[in-house]
Structures are given as structure tokens and as C-alpha cells.
Amino acid sequence: MRSPDDVRRTFLASAFVLAIALDASASTKPLAPRQVVSLDGTWQVEQGGMDHRPEAFSHTVVVPGLLDMARPKFQDVGKKSPLRAAFWYRRTFRLEGPSPAVAVLKIHKARYGTKVFLNGNLVGEHLPCFTPAYLDVQKQLRGDGQENELVIRVGADRESIPQDMPTGWDFEKYLYIPGIYDSVELILTGTPYIRNVQIVPDVAGKAARIVAEIEASGEPSEAACKVQVAEAASGKLVGSATAPAVAIPVRELRKVDLTIPLDPCRLWSPDDPFLHELRLTTGGDAVRVRFGMRSFGFDVKAKRAVLNGKPYFMRGTNVCTYRFFEDAAREDHPWRADWVRRLHQKFKSMHWNSIRYCIGFPPEMWYDIADEEGFLIQDEFPIWIGGKAPENPKAEKIIPEYTEWMRERWNHPCVVIWDGQNESFTDQTGKAIQAVRHLDLSNRPWENGWSEPQSPSDCVESHPYLFIRMWSQKKPFYLKEMVNVSGVPALNPRQKKLDVPIVINEYGWLWLNRDGTPTCLTDKVYESLLGTNSTVDQRRMLYARYLAALTEFWRCHRGSAGVLHFCGLGYCRAGDKPRPEGGATSDHFIDLEKLTFEPKIEEYVGEAFNPVGLMLDFWAEEVLCGDRRQLKVFAINDRYEDWSGSVRLRIVRGSDEVWRSSQPCTIQSLGRTLLTFPVAMPAKPGCYTMIAQLVRDSDKPIRSLRDFKATEPK
Fold first, then answer.
1. Given this model, what pLDDT does residue 223 score?
2. 522 and 377 within one domain
3. Residues 365 and 493 in one domain
């Protein structure tokens, strides 16, 4: 794990040096004549008021990053403080050659509220905290080697933003750390200027539709757009076209819309994350945009996700980046591409193909990596107001931010669901969704939290937290009660106004901190299940086995289009206080730098997410010795190939096997098979484990396990 001083030295090594950066939507260098100049690195920073820049800057901080990374440290960062109302960033840079016709400063993400000055002149403001600011700096920019001074002011806390705007409120956060937490870059190019490109894959037609917004700067222009599509890795050309010339009046936008057949046309999926690259030129400007050929939606009748025209079962997890931002062990991890890639690869090892980026957006680099590693992303806008949050965003303020969000992200194949909010009862997000959904020409589905779905093609979220009952009603829930739980997760009346597919993207309510202690939401749960003197090992074993059993239940009943557990990455802090100060949830890591999962979670939960899985439908915690039962085993297959083998059912006591039976089993592609076993319970009293296994040749058996006690009749 790198120390803060190591992080600072790394950034200081490249401080104030201009470098060619990656285009926001590409992983390759910009296409000439466009240059994208990175302004990432070490900046000067100082605290102060909202209206007057500080006279001196006595601290430094890395960009992208957060202001708790400043050196020397500021006090009480992330909390409202009389020490400051704002933080002011400053850096200088020089450009060789003259200032071009188009110069746009892009601040990918900053919070809370951004105000920008270049060479002492106000450039503009951008209040949204989760979407990029694009600011025209052509008039203020100095070329020919002259020094430029860039100053950016951000609000010091969440209350710097009007409460009718989204501010990122979270009932389980208590630190709202400000800062420029994504990259800053300078886009330099000529005219006609390509303001935005949307690529619409036509999987059935093996073609890509290109819709580009072209703007003339300075004087009227004519755009003669030339387009090429190549395989991103090899550079092999697979399609090209030239659009008719378009006359563009000064400072006006024109759209160029053309479709390019691709030959060959290789599709993108989590199993084969194959990427293409668009190259678009106007004569005065050019861009590269990376994309994937994939389609995604829901089969409304079957209640299934459909990827590239085929049913697809979503298995996955959640990442709560903004909670992770306040984690004591966070350091610079969110901005290290190597760590972020290893994180996603770790998720892959758990058989996860989907991630909900929950209640907020990570740095844009994460989406590039999700494209490359192959994940379906449910991208959740940071609105969580429940029914009593201190903020109340209004539709007219949400709409511009939804628009900026979509324009930034619609070429990422990983992004398959626009998620407008989390667990909130409000009509404002629905109004905003209706106002913007037509902008996405790929027509991705939307999810609207606990409020009404907005289209028959959308989905709803369900959070079947069965063990919440101990926290909310002071009444424990026991695993034996699973016999009374429906395989179709519950919804509230608002969510039922349209009969749309369900995605379970949270479940469990069994969180343990990384050291094995309960959180403030689960302490009483573990007391009810294990008593007051349970050990770390006992709690970790129960968590892993129960979470695996819940995963099997929701997956094997096929009552939802996706099962995404909560959570793969979040924060960790002591649960000795109520939320938000006390830690409410946590992830499963025991070593963040090495990305080491708690071994029992990795073993049992990873097994429960296997694409070919099973569930032993046996939930009794106590049986009579010698009892005879007919037990069911559900076997499922998420793959596109049939599976054949056998199901073995065993009863063991320690290392001794006391009973076994086996049946042949075939599970059709995307299918489910139900087997029934006559079972004789052990004749001797004691503690036992029943194990159902999927067995095939040399494959490692896939298990479903239940612990129970056999007792003598009274």
C-alpha cells in the first residue's frame, strides 16, 4: 500500500508539464489535428471564501483526487467548517504555437460547484457535481509560449449547492469530501468543431449509425465528414463512409447522420469484450471514439435481459465509489488504473458479469476499464432522498444533469441501464426521465428506484433484505423461514404500475466490516443468530454461507432478470455508532491494496454465482432422527450450451459421510432443471451438513450446503 508521500512524489514528478491525454471516450491518442492536453498532476490549493481568491497558496493537491489528499493537510475536510467556504485550485501552463480556433477546458467531475478563471478572467461556472463542465477558453488562452494561469474554485461542502439540485446526499455517509475528482484537460483544435458523437450499434443489421454534432467557430464553415471504423486492438479497417458536405453558420450546430456497414461485425459482450474505434474528421477537427457493437434491453413477457438478441442473466455486485471516497484506507486507489483494473478482474473471478455503480459515478477511467474487461453497468445517478433527505431535487434541475450524463457516457458499451435514482419516492426523477430518454438513440432501459417505471421497456429494482427485520422490527429472521419466501421479490405499489422486469441489485443485510465486526445495522442480527459472544470466524462463516444461500435462492427461482449483491466495494468503519457516523455497510476485502477477499466469501459466494449453479431447497435447522423427506434440488444454466452431468446429494458429519444419493442431470441452455430426492435423515442425533453437488467429469463440483441438527423425538 503506497503512503501519501509516495503518491505526492509520483505526481510531483510530472507537475506542471503538459502531456497529450486520452480523449474522454477513447483509449487511444487523439486524432490530428485535435490535441487533448492533460492538466492532471499537482496543483496549488488554498481554502478561503466563495468570492475572493486567496492571496497566497500554501498547499498542494493532486488532480484528479480529493482535498483530503492536500499537503499539508487541511482540517475537517468533508465537513461543514467555519475555516472555509471554498477551496481554490491554481496551476500554470504554457502552449507552444498560437492559440487555435477552438480551445475548450473540460473538467470531467468536480464538487461542489465549479467556478473557473483563466488569466484573471472569469470563464464560467458549472454547478453540477457529477457531470463534466465544458468551458470555452479560446479568448482567454495565451499561446506562443506565454504563461497561462488557471484558477478553479470549488465549494467546500455539499451545502454549497442549492438544495433543489442533486448534491449526492447519502443516508450512510457523513463526509462529503470536495475536490476535482476526475481529470482536467484542454481540447485544442480547428473548425468545424466536433462537439459530440453518438454511435448507435445496429447489431441485427451489422452496421453502426453515427450521429455527430458539428459546430462552426469564428466564421461559417463547410464540414465534409469522413468516417472510418476499425477494430480497436488491431487497427484493421472494417467500414468507412463520407457524408455529403454540410454548410454550418457561425456558432451554430449541425448534425451529420450516417450509417456504416461493418465487415466483419464482431459483437461486444462480457464474455467477449471486443471494441471498435470510430475515426471522424471534418477537415478542421478529428476525433477517435471507442465503442462496442452490442444491443441491450428487456424481454417484457419473459422478464429477462436480452443482450445482442439473446436472453442474458445478470450476475453481479455493486460499487459505491462515493462511500469508498471516505474510507480511511482509500488513498489514491480510485485514480490508479492498475488497481481499478485488478478490482474488475477480481469481480470477474466471482463469476460476476454486471456491476451497479451505486449512488454515484466513479472517474471516467472506470468505464473504459469496464468496457475492456467486459461488464454490464447499471449506472446510477446519485439521488437518494428516500422520504426525508435534506435535499429535494426538482425535475428542472435534474434534466440538465441527466442530459450531460447521457452525452458523456452513451458510447460506452458497458453502460446498459440508465438508473435515475436509488430507493426514493418522488415524481421528479420520472419527469426528468421522460424529458431526456429520447436523446439516447440506442434506447437503453431506465430504472427509477422506488418510484414508477416510466416505460414498459424499463425495469425496476428490488431490495429483498430479509434480515432487515431485526433492525426495523426487532424481530429476528431465520433461514428456516425461506420456505415461506416467494421466489419473485417484493415491490412497492408504485413500482407495480407497469409490469416490467425486476433486477435485484441489493440483498442480504448481513454486512461485516473488514475485520469481521458487525456494522451498526447488523450487530443485533448477529446477536440473534449467534449470541452475544460470537467469534470473528463464526460470523464470517455465517455471512458467507447465508449470503451464498440467498444468492442461490434468488438465482434459481428465476424471479428476476438480475441478481447483484451488495457490495463489492464500499467503505469500512466501526459500527459502534448509529449511521451515518457508524459504518452501516461494508465490502469483503481484507487487503485493499492486494484486493484480497475474505476467503470464506470468495469460496462460498463465488460458487453460488457460478453460471451453472444449484440450490438445495432445504431450509430446516432441526429435523427428527430417521425422518424421511422428499427434497428438491434446483439446477440452473446461464450459458448458451447445454450442461450434462449428475447431481449428488450427501449428508456429512465432520469428515464422515453418513448418506449419499445421485441422479443424472441435464440442464438445457438458459434453462432450469428440478430434481427430487427421497432422503433419510441421520439416525443418530448431532450436527450435520447436507451438500448438493453438480458433478461432471474433471470439473470442480459446484455445491449448495445447509447445516442442520438431528434430534431424538421427544
1. 87
2. yes
3. yes
548 alpha carbon, distance to own chain's centre = 22
Angstrom distance (rounded) from CA 510 to CA 527: 12
Contact indicator for 289, 22 with CB cutoff of 8 Å: no
| pLDDT of amino acid 12 | 32
Looking up residue 271, the CATH number of its domain turns out to be 2.60.40.10
201 grid coordinates: 450499434
Q: Do 49 and 153 share a domain, yes or no? A: yes
**CATH number for the domain that contains residue 445:** 3.20.20.80
391-413 per-position pLDDT tens digit? 999 999 999 999 999 999 999 99
Three cell numbers at 557? 427461482
Residue 139: strand, helix, or coil: coil
Q: What is the pLDDT of residue 23?
A: 32
Please give the pLDDT value at position 698.
Answer: 75
pLDDT tens for residues 469-499? 999 999 999 999 999 999 999 999 999 999 9
Rg (CA), the chain: 27
Place of cell 476499464: 369
Whether residues 266 and 381 share a domain: the answer is: no
Q: Measuring CA to CA, how many Å separate 304 from each of 16, 561, 676, 688?
A: 51, 5, 27, 37
Output the nine-digit C-alpha cell for 348: 470477474
Q: Which H/E stretch holds residue 372?
A: helix 365-373
Sign of CA dihedral 420, 425, 426, 427: positive
Alpha carbon distances (Å) from 120 to 50, 373, 441, 504, 642: 16, 43, 41, 51, 67
What 3-state DSSP class applies to 329? coil
Say what the pLDDT of residue 177 is.
Answer: 98
The residue segments making up the domain with residue 88 are 4-188
Which of 609, 637, 664 marks a domain boundary? 609
Same domain (yes/no): 101, 200: no
Please say whether the beta carbons of 425 and 392 come within 8 A: no
- What CATH number has the domain bearing residue 114? 2.60.120.260
Q: Which of 291, 307, 336 is the last residue of a domain?
A: 291
Residues of the chain with pLDDT under 50: 1-27
Same domain, 171 and 204: no
Please indicate, yes or no, whether residues 536 and 671 belong to a single structural domain of this protein: no
Find cell 484493421 and name the residue: 236
* Residue 677 and residue 693 in contact, taking contact as beta carbons nearer than 8 Å: no
